[in-house]
Amino acid sequence: MAINTDMAGGHAGSGSGGVLALLNDTRYRGIIAQIALIIALVALGWWLVHNTIENLRSANIASGFDFLDRRSGFEISQLPIIFSSESSYGRALLIGILNTLIVSAAGVVLATILGFLVGIGRLSTNYIIRGLSTVYVETFRNIPPLLVIMFWYFGVLAVLPRPAGAIALPFGSFLSNRGLQTPTALFQTGAWATGVALLAGIGAAVLLAWYARKRQLATGQRMKVLWPSVGLIVGLPVVVFILTGLPVEFEYPTATRFNLQGGFQIKPEFLALFLALSVYTGSFIAEIVRAGILSVSHGQTEAASAVGLRRGQILRHVVVPQAFRVIIPPLTSQYLNLTKNSSLGLAVGYPDLVAVGSTVLNQTGQSVEVVAIWMVVYLTISLTVSTFMNWFNRRVKLVER
Amino acid sequence: MEEQVSGYVADQQIPSRPAPASDRGIVHAVQKNLFATPVDSVLSIVFGAFAIWLAWSILSWAVFDATFVGGDRASCLTPEGGESEGACWAFVGAKFSQFMYGSYPIDLRWRPNLVGIVFVLLVAGFAIPKVPFKALNGWLLFAVFPVFALVLLTGAGFDVSGGFTAFLMLMAATAAYLLYGDDAGGLAAWPGRVAAIALIACFAGIVMSSLDTGTIRFAGITFTVWSLLACLSAILSVGAIALGMAQRAGVQIWRPVLPVIVATIVAVLLAEDYGLRPVSTNLWGGLMLTLIVAVTGIAASLPLGVLLALGRQSDMPAIRTVCVIFIEFWRGVPLITVLFMAAFMLPLLMPSGVTFNQLLRALVGVALFSAAYMAEVIRGGLQAIPRGQYEGAQSLGLSYWQSMRMIILPQALKLVIPGIVNTFIGLFKDTSLVYIIGLADLLGTVRRGFSDPNWITPSTAATGLVFAGFVFWLFCFGMSRYSLFVERRLDTGHKR
After folding, report:
1. Whether residue A374 sits in one domain with residue A288
2. Are B422 and B490 in contact (CB under 8 A)?
3. Which string of DSSP letters, residue by residue, matches A232-295?
4. Is A241 contained in some domain?
5. CB distance B51–A30 less than 8 Å?
6. CA B247 vs CA B240, B250, B258, B406, B460: distances in Å
7. pLDDT tens per residue, range B63-81
8. Same domain (yes/no): A8, A157
9. Nearest CA to A342 among A331, B343, A334, B443?
């Protein structure tokens, strides 16, 4: 105790006792503040849980996750796996998770392509390309994604002609207010050989790249890798495909009086959500890409052209690797935003996790459990994506001394 | 002496000559910017054709084929009963007041109008650098305006409880203690100790006020004995701080007292009956509601965000962990699940009998959600302040809260104004989600509008959504320009 009083410094010496002396010592004050915070949080938590239990009891709502095994009794329009109204709530939620992942993955791909093209376009010296890119970015960045989703769904897709008068697109596809109907490929026996050839081609290309790199490090000579790789990955499967006698048959959709028969149907809900998310997120990615490229200092480009690299080489070897370091962290958060925004599919009836969950919530009244499932799933997705992107970020990071 | 070598030295600058004829004029500019290489030429032609097609389609949809006047859907359909290809602006015209105010009573719409005008004036005064009286303007905008808006929009005459009043005063007194407690000597001097003990007493009084011990009516507010004691303790606390400050430096002793006075006035004003007709919040809607949710969300999230950002930077592991978990949790989940949580779980979490109206629930959700984002923006500002500033503040003998108040936060917050504006743009766009939990914001009223059987035509939905999109775009684009302007004004770095 004596030591503590000494540590407490001059002010507390006026015989005010041990407690005040402790409070005046910044270290102990810190510990006391933390203990107080923890006690307050535990008390708050206890109070909230207590209230919830009381409320649930008085409203006669069951708690716990037993409802996941019960019969759901509703239908879902978009099914990656088998489901019927006889299936359980748990399976319904699983379909919701899968649908969220499907639309997010598709959206990420298109948004990235769109974003990179437009981001480079905004730096083009060409008036028209730069102008169009700027208009695109400034328009979609400043409009709520929900509005864009609703625009595609209610404003564009819903007013397309009925299936009987569907708009014919190339490759035997049809666009109508029931969505996009594309042909399906039906693989026949022997098609597996093509798949194997594709895998083998990819494997060989990876080996080739590894060997070329090793040789360059050892001898300084560069090998042509691009065209042999394309040949291995594309050419080999094509050759095998032809040799095995074209083992595939396409089923084309045909228009009947009221509907389109056959083929694969992409629902308008998915299309609206997918297009809106890609277009919206693409505009943000474009800005990130532009900022990344601009962040590479002018001296780098000048130095590169001074050592005699051509325009394409400067871009490939000097600008892009450095721009990537700046681009990746914000790009990650855009991917995560896209995934989180996919929950807006609820507004147009795309059965993602939130839409299915809200149906379950309305039927069972078990809001606590459903909200908990939502939170856990989204947090898991967030953590997984950011772990992966952090790993990728470390790979491309500047190695400093 | 050096001999003059050259016979001629120009005594004035030779005027620069114009660029060669081949490098001048529109022809050259077009050649350089559109047809530099064959690939460029092809791209220019293809995208030029696309741009013309796009502009023409938009123009013919929005103007040439559009219907501007009409009373119902018939006017947007062609006479033969066919479907008109253009926009149906008549629909927007007919529903315009709904898109702006929702179902707010028509004869009372001067109230939101007045609030809107005052808001625009105050924000303009605050945002334009040249306008004088920034401090007064700030007080009006952040302390007076919210009460004014709340009173005018709802009609006031609330049944304010003593517990609520005491809670407001506790918040104000806690803020005063954290910010100014050390100016009064902190726990080392008796005024600081009295202030701290009074704060704890105030908190205890609020906890005890749920016990029923008879009521006292004062200034339109119903107090219980305990809540009255809590209010008095809060006053005692700030009084002690002011006294301590007077004993020591004796400057600006009104500062710690001000928050509690504001809190008291707020409670009294809310309880006052002005003879205004009350308007229930479920009648609010349209752009008005969108703005209310966005502005309240940002205003509530700023102080919370500052606290969270400070907590995340703290040396104390428990506080840091709590803040990190809080921030990462809200940032990891979509806003829509947060709104569902607010709508369905908040009533469960409160003691039975306590009810929130739907708007308030949404506001709580939005505020917590945006506080997490705001915290990260502010943390960026805190990290950008050089270490020397922190150390300098310490070497002057300032306490943690003093150095934050006087040295760090003013610099950090100024640095992140663009970030705050960007967060606000994000929040403004996100408010459109409240439509999903049943509030009629701008997007919600448009959505309801185009389901109206009187107006169902193929182009109604697109027209309504384009209109709403344009309104959102105007606000967001304006704010992003402002953020760019601030960024340039504050930017002192050297750019190439």
Report:
1. yes
2. no
3. IIIIHHHHHHHHTT--EEEE--EE-SSSEESSEEEPHHHHHHHHHHHHHHHHHHHHHHHHHHHH
4. no
5. no
6. 10, 6, 18, 20, 70
7. 877 777 777 777 777 655 5
8. no
9. A334
Of B34, B318, B337, the CB nearest to A375: B337
Asked if A24's CB is within 8 angstroms of B188's CB, the reply is yes
Q: What is the pLDDT of residue A7?
A: 39
- Do A378 and A314 share a domain, yes or no? yes
> Is residue A215 situated within a structural domain?
no
Residue A260, in any domain of the structure:
no
Instruction: Say yes or no to pLDDT of B468 above 50.
Output: yes
B2 has a pLDDT exceeding 60 = no
Among B323, B301, B335, CA closest to B431: B335
Based on the fold, state whether residues A18 and A118 are members of the same structural domain: no
A390 lies within 8 A of chain B by CB: no
Question: Shortest Cα distance from B341 to chain A (angstroms)?
Answer: 6
Least confident of A18-27, B283-292, B432-441: A18-27
**Both A277 and A386 in a single domain?**
yes
Give the domain extent around A22: 2-59
**Does residue A218 lie in a domain region?**
no
Last residue of a domain, one of A38, A59, A80: A59
The structural domain count of chain A equals 2
B window 293-322, beta carbon within 8 A of A: 315-319, 322
ipTM of this predicted structure: 0.81
**Length in residues, chain A:** 401
Residues A154 and A6 in one domain: no
- Position A278 scores a pLDDT of 93
B347 touches chain A (CB under 8 A): yes
Q: Average pLDDT for consecutive 10-residue bins of chain A (401 residues)?
A: 39 50 71 85 86 79 70 68 71 85 91 91 85 91 90 81 69 71 70 81 88 84 79 82 73 66 76 90 92 87 89 83 84 88 87 86 81 88 82 71 51
- Give the residue from chain A lying closest to B41, CA to CA: A126
Check A142 against B480: CB less than 8 A apart: yes
Q: How far is A63 from chain B (nearest CA, A)?
A: 13
Residues of B in contact with A32 (CB under 8 A): none
Specify the pLDDT at position A118: 92
pLDDT bucket at B491, cuts 50 / 70 / 90: low
Task: Please indicate, yes or no, whether residues A299 and A385 belong to a single structural domain of this protein.
Answer: yes
**Residues of chain A with C-beta less than 8 angstroms from the C-beta of B347:** 55
Mutate to test the interface with B, among A143, A151, A363, A375 (most CBs of B within 10 A): A143
Residue with tokens 């509703």: A74
Closest CA relative to residue A12, chosen from B193, B181, B176, B180:
B193
Are residue A137 and residue A270 in the same domain, yes or no?
A: yes
- Tell me, what CATH number does A370's domain have? 1.10.3720.10
Establish if A142 touches chain B: CB-CB under 8 angstroms.
Answer: yes
Per-window interface: B 476-495 vs A, CB < 8 A? 476-477, 480
Question: Residue B196 to residues A369, B236, B304: CA-CA distances in angstroms?
Answer: 41, 10, 22
Query: Using one digit for the tens of pLDDT, what is the confidence trace for B136-155?
Result: 888 788 777 888 888 888 87
Cβ–Cβ of A367/B348 closer than 8 Å? yes
The terminus-to-terminus CA distance of chain A in angstroms comes to 49
Q: Which of A266, A278, A265 minimizes the C-alpha distance to A342?
A: A278
For residue B325, give the chain A residue with the closest CA. A379
Give the chain A residue whose CA is nearest to the CA of B319.
A34
B348 vs A56, A297, A341: nearest CB: A56
